[in-house]
Amino acid sequence: MSHYEAPIREPLVLGDKSYHDITEDIAKPIEGKANKNWYMAFYISLAAMLWGFGCIFYTVGTGIGVWGLSKNIGWAWDITNFVWWVGIGHAGTLISAVLLLFRQKWRMAINRSAEAMTIFAVFQAGLFPIIHMGRPWNGYWVLPIPNQFGSLWVNFNSPLLWDVFAISTYLSVSLVFWWTGLLPDFAMIRDRAVKPFQKKIYALLSFGWSGRAKDWQRFEEVSLVLAGLATPLVLSVHTIVSMDFATSINPGWHSTIFPPYFVAGAIFSGFAMVQTLLGIMRKVTNMEEYITRLHVEYMNIVIILTGGIVAVAYATEFFIAWYTGSPYENYTYLSVGAATGPYAWAFYSLLFFNILTPQLLWFKKIRRSFIWSFIISIFINIGMWFERFDIIAIVLSKGHLPSTWWRFEPTFVDVGIFIGTIGFFFVLFLLYARTFPVIAQAEVKTILKSSGEFYKKRREQGIPTKPAINVVATEGTSDKKDKE
Amino acid sequence: MASNKKYWKSVEELKDSSIVETLSKNEFVEEIPTDQFLGDKETLENTSTSRRDFLKYVGFTTAAASLAACEGPVRKSIPYVVKPNDVIPGVADWYATSMADGYDFANVLVKTREGRPIQIMPNKEANGTTSARVQAAVLSLYDEKLRLQNPTKGGEEISWADADKEIGAKLNELKEADQPVVLLTGTMASPSTSKIVDEFLATYPNVKHVVYDAVSESGAADAFEAMYGQRALPNYHLDKAKTIVSFGADFLGDFHGGFEKQYIDGRKPETGHMSYHVQVESNMSLTGANADKRIVAKPSDVVFALINLYKEITGVSVPSNATPIDAEIKQLAKELKKSGSKGVVMTGVNDINAQLISLAINRALGSEILGINNSLNIRQGSDEQVEKLVSDLKSGNVSGLITYNVDPIYTHANSSVFAEAIKSLALSVAISTENNETVNASTYALPASHFLESWGDTHFTQGNYGLMQPTIQPLFNTRQLQDVLLKWSGNDTKYYNYIKAFWSSEILKDASWNTALHNGFYTASVDTVVDNVVTPRDISISDVALLLKRSVNPSDFELNLYTKTGLGDGKQANNPWLQEFPDPITRASWDNYLTMSMADAKALGFSNPVKDNGAIDGDYAKVSVNGVSVTVPVMVQPGQAKGSVGLSLGYGRTFGLKEEMQVGVNAYPLYTNSNNIQYGVTIEKASGTHKFACTQVQKTIAGRHDILKVASLKEYKTVDPKDHHHGWNKPAYVSYDHNEVEANTIDLWDEHNREVGHHFNLSIDLTSCTGCGACVVACHAENNVPVVGKNEVRVGRDMHWLRIDRYYSSEVETREEAKELGLSRGETYEALETEAENPEVTFQPMMCQHCNHAPCETVCPVAATSHGRQGQNQMAYNRCVGTRYCANNCPYRVRRFNWFNYANNNEFDFNMNNEYGKMVLNPDVVVRSRGVMEKCSMCIQMTQATILKAKKEGRAVNTDEFETACSSACTTGAMVFGDVNNKKDEVAALAEDKRAYNVLDYLQTKPNVIYQVKIKNTNEA
After folding, report:
1. At what angle do helices A77-88 and A370-389 cross, to 10 degrees?
2. Mode of pairing for the β-strands spanning B896-897 and B933-934
3. Among A388, A160, A369, which Cα is nearest to A258's?
4. Cα–Cα distance, B869 to B858 (Å, whole number)
5. What is the per-residue DSSP string for B66-85?
6. Which residues in chain A (161-220) have CB-CB distances under 8 A to chain B?
7. Which residues are CB-neighbours of B791 under 8 A, at least 6 positions away?
8. Where are the alpha helices (DSSP H) in B340-474?
9. For position A3, what pLDDT does the model report?
10. A11-20, B20-29, B512-521, B809-818: which range is least confident on average?
11. A65–B701: do the CB atoms touch at under 8 Å?
């Protein structure tokens, strides 16, 4: 019984779907015309992106002084945004790699978009370390490449350098993983395309996928290998990002708890962003039957778990700051000093958005509600931004020497660049939604018979689960995949 | 001038111009055969230039022309064709000279590079000291905006010769008519100039010389004259003092004569001798900040307290009033009596009677500290004479006014009298280095040479002479006053020859001119000084006290006018270094403000909220005195006496200044009768919010006492510094293997062997640091530190490599105290963060600590900052990509980022944006571009130069030969730099001293900057 799945499990694909229906559903946004909403969203995002690019050009042309930084606060929104976007980029790999290794079938409906989100988020994240440099045109000096500057080498002690390696590795592995999964789906689009130009493009993108058994075998092998490679990256990237802070000596940054806490926080925020994006996408692209309440609930469960870890980490930080008895720990971002100081609003925002709101997800009704999940996911996104802002700005605002205590206020350029990256992200995502198969249809087809509502019902009723309509597997699917 | 001459090219043109006219109408004399050329189709068709070729030629020529136009701007640097003998490119020449600009007087050394003076340092051999203003004076030399460049008459340029002729004629005319003319100068303290002036007055008997000091000390001089028969300021030998009581005399901040060295010499805990200094004052002055005890009182009470002290000391009853501080004064009297001749009293009240009482107390004590025999000549202005001039001007009794480097229209309370009268004078001449309102109002404006371009001599204290010599050719078409006056007196001698002859005959006697010029000073032999001993006259102090009492008019608010350490009387208001220099007390730059006590501010609703961008705002107050009112921003000042307000002079100057420098409010209109205390002040809240530019916002140490260690003299003498409970210099302890061990016994890293070669340390003695800030400006000059302007300082982007942190004490100093008081955690923080109403003040110079385990070095991704073999933390600007991670990881926050291009940028139109201002740049130090981090380099260019010099001379580096700009500028010896591997270097012993500690030693960054615990003599009383 290769297609058997316990009837107690909820179906992952709703409705009376055949393989062909899946193909049609997934290909529709690509082959059809975009609606008004898409254009509106696209133009708004594009405008935001261009505004952000303008702010970036202004910064690079004039100097970092156009931001709100000062002698005592050398980082603020730049690195906050960087860590926030990297964190968001975490869910994709977790969903596609870790859940693949754990054979979680529900990932199949969401992994494509989650991975796309990862890559687009890492693009945004990658912008900040470059533009936050005083001399970004010399940014390539952080790469350990042979050079003619008297063979100057990079400083391998520096966590910023580790960042360079971690992020670039993460981006490249994610990209390869994503693309590998896309090959059969691109092939499907290619085969359906009627316009020669479109056919040509998708032919190029699908790397000549032919759907042979050998293709499938290699596909499976590569997926598995990449999943194995990517899994440690899920942990490593944010571990290393956290070391930017943890290996420094600022009270509030210098904390051994940071690596696991950051990883948990990253998955927390990543799932929240997936929740946000899919909440919109399932409506816009009519994928309601593939991204179901069950998916939402599963993601919410991950959010509760990682949110719990984060909450425990906050409590630990708060406790340790108090327990050290050191006057230098009085004003760390989780301390009485922060709760009573000028950044109290940011402190309480963090607690409200990141600790209180996710607790609502303990209620099944809320957990399974699309709209509640959507709202809570946005709250978490905000909360996680505040977490990074608090860590950076509050800590830097109260350095070791009281004479150096200062405050940070963003300028319009700070805000503009952040909004610009959000715009850029959505521009990429919207273009993706119109040109890429947003659901890994090849994979979803593999679970149709085991987890599709139609087949499950039939099995329950004792009707043989032969497909009602026979679909020849020409569109890049294979029954081979069903063998598990 | 029309000419009748006719020029001709040919005879035809001369004789018959008709043919020439015809010809000139035809451009081409012969017809051009265009028809022939264009009509010849055959040849045209045979030409090989096709259309393609034509386009090619056009293309090439266009490209070539545009390429030729693309040449970058050419900047010529012209090498010496014939190298001057005494200029070696790359080697600095030092000249000993003196500064005397009418307000600041100092024996200095001037560093010149390739003929350009680039730095001023104290001439320590001459006991010279420098303040921030003296240090910064070198930049005023290059002030092309404000300095007068050519003689002008009514705004039109004229030649010196014409000016001499016209003014000479005018003077003679006035002399014939016996019309009074006044020569108004500041204090010059120059014997040869006095003689020249006398000769000038002899030539023109109708001329009267009036000395006018913008900030007057006339009262002190008059009192000294009344008692000791000599018009000068009393000198104080504070190094020998046991008890110093100052009634509002800011002898450390209001720099005149450099008391800080002697003061600190008398406060060395190691020697066991430490004076007990009590300051009775209303404003929080730099001197008060350094005092062992500060008694706060309103100005009127300060004056009464002075009289009451006299009563207590002498037991003679004199008219006075009771004050709230009488009990403390009684105690003080006891203390002073105990010290006897080692006690001294001084007062800063510019009133002859107050000064007389102060002198009388010193006489009663038999004070040896009061130096009668070497009084100070640096304030000779007489309020009486100036007032007479004002009334004469009003009544039209003056026909001519010659001013030299004074600006009464800006600095005098009755400036309108000057402004009005000067217009109707028969002759008004302003000889001035800088443009100002008085210069503008005068008919003739004659540019005077800067002191760095001039010859001259000085006589600051009796018997101590100094010489001034030019360190650069005059930049502009200037002359110095002495040459001008000599010429007008009909003496054709050059001043250089004059002064040489004068010194040989009058001062040097047998000594050599060359030696004196080389040294920059000459001390007259003892017997000449002894001649000056005078017997004091007896004055009825009872009468004096009555007069004084009558002059005091206690009121709800009393204003104490003062001068700021940075700008002084405002002479150098166009100097960006001084404008950006943060006030040592308030740490505000680019501003003056009304200092107000916390209690008054609360009652009147004034506050200084900290904005979200870290900057401080203030409310405006309308201050009215004697019918004059000004609107000034309020700065709430801890330690300000309730019922008093302070306002600094020297700001609000606008005429001729760069727009950026036109900051603050002019307080001179309130300076009625040159009295620094004004009674009957009313204060109203005015609308609007003022934006301050403060470099420090948090005022207290917030319970972090291992940053700033302070101990009393008694503790220093009796308590083991490392004692676990009461130790005053406890090292940091950490837990290691479950044992508490000293933090410096454990280490993550293997140490390099630091015994090899030089290893530099800088020791900073917090006991000796008065916070004067001379080092801050010295660092500016030495290291080409950019000026960023008010708006940037406001948002926390000052570029100072060296800053002086100022901490006020709080009512609750430690968490233990707070616990005893039963405060909650939040309340504890608030208590620790809030400054006391009348706090103790501590200064802490802070610069790169050059950590041997530097947190900045590990985090730079491109290894732009790394450790030098000699202990410096080095910064490779060229390699820096500007991630600012190093700055974030620096616990001392001493790294400074170039947020913008500060050189050649019109947005930052300071000295690095014009050709003259750039002449002050030190060629040994690169000017940083935007996007790179910079910080203190421990003056590596200076230490390397020292090493190379020794190497060239084939010797080892001498003991204490190494110096940095800050350590050479520090006159109190608070900063000592040297090589700890040379055990004879002073710093080697200091590094081992029991007072030595590192800031934040719990971090074990192992800094190469050592601080010495501040010892206060608080147990004496």
Report:
1. 140
2. antiparallel
3. A388
4. 16
5. HHHHTPPPP---PPPSS--T
6. 161, 164
7. B693
8. 352-365, 383-395, 408-411, 415-424, 437-441
9. 64
10. B20-29
11. no
Q: What are phi and psi of B835, to 5 degrees?
A: -75, 155
Probe site for chain B from A152, A401, A411, A412 (most B CB atoms < 10 A) = A401
The set of residues, in sequence order, having a beta carbon less than 8 Å from that of A3 and lying 6+ positions away, is A449, A450, A455, A465, A482
Residue for token pair 């008297």? A150
Which of A250, A339, A404 is facing B889, going by the closest CB pair? A250
CA distance A468 to A447: 16
Using a 10 angstrom Cβ sphere, with 0-12 exposed, 13-18 middle and 19 or more buried, the burial of residue B949 is middle
- Residue A396 at interface with chain B, using a CB cutoff of 8 Å: yes
Considering only CB atoms, A402 lies closest to which of B704, B792, B882, namely B704
Q: Using an 8 Å Cβ cutoff, are B401 and B182 in contact?
A: yes
Average pLDDT in chain B: 89
Does pLDDT of B703 surpass 80?
yes
Q: Would the CA dihedral through B137, B143, B145, B151 be positive or negative?
A: positive
Asked if B353 contacts B333 with a C-beta cutoff of 8 angstroms, the reply is: no
Q: Give the model's pLDDT for residue B2.
A: 62
d(CA B23, CA B20): 5
As a dihedral over the C-alpha atoms of residue B462, residue B464, residue B469, residue B475, rounded to 10 degrees, the angle is -50
Whole-number Å distance between alpha carbons of B615 and B416: 37
pLDDT the model gives residue B726: 86
- B513 close contact with A: CB closer than 8 A: no
Of residues B492, B491, B478, B481, the one with CA closest to residue B403: B481
Give dist(CA B297, CA B643) in Å, integer. 9
Per-residue pLDDT of B88-121, as tens digits, reads 888 899 999 999 988 889 999 999 998 899 999 9
Task: Give, in order, the Cα–Cα distances in Å from B782 to each of A242, A471, B870, B937, B942.
Answer: 40, 84, 20, 11, 9
User: Kind and range of the H or E element at B296?
Assistant: strand B293-296
Instruction: Show which of residues 817-836 on chain B sit within 8 Å of chain A, judged by CB atoms.
Output: 825-826, 829-830, 833
| CB pair distance less than 8 Å for B861 and A132 | no
Q: Cite the beta strand spans of B847-883 per DSSP E.
A: 865-867, 873-875
Q: What whole-number distance in Å separates Cα of residue B465 and Cα of residue B470? A: 17
Please name the residues between 116 and 145 in chain B that touch chain A, using a CB distance below 8 Å: none
Q: Please, where are the H alpha helices in B669-799? A: 713-718, 774-782, 790-794
CA distance A366 to chain B (A): 37
Q: What is the pLDDT along chain A (484 residues), one digit of tens a residue?
A: 356 777 788 888 888 888 888 888 888 888 888 888 889 999 999 999 999 999 999 999 999 999 999 999 999 999 999 999 999 988 888 888 888 888 888 888 888 888 999 999 999 999 999 999 999 999 999 998 888 877 788 999 999 999 999 999 999 999 999 999 999 999 999 999 888 999 999 999 999 899 899 999 999 999 889 988 888 888 889 999 999 999 999 998 998 999 999 999 999 999 999 999 988 888 888 888 888 889 999 999 999 999 999 999 999 999 988 888 888 888 888 888 888 889 999 999 999 999 999 999 999 999 999 999 999 999 999 999 999 999 999 999 999 999 999 999 999 999 999 999 999 999 999 999 889 998 888 888 888 888 888 888 887 787 765 555 554 444 444 444 443 3
Interface of B with A in 990-1009 (CB under 8 A): 999-1000, 1003, 1005
| Cα–Cα dist A443/A476, whole Å | 10
